[in-house]
Amino acid sequence: MPATACIFDAYGTLFDVTAAARRAAEEPGAQALAARWRELADIWRAKQLQYTWLRAITGAHTDFWRVTEDSLDWAMEATGLSDAGLRARLLRLYRKLDAYPETAETLAALKSAGHPTAILSNGSADMLADAVQSAGLEGCFDAVLSVDAVGVFKPARVVYDMVGARFGCAPAEALFVSSNGWDAGAATGYGFTTVWVNRADDPVDRLPWTPHHMVDDLRAIPDLARTL
Question: Structural domains in the chain?
Answer without folding.
Answer: 5-15+98-226 (3.40.50.1000), 19-94 (1.10.150.240)
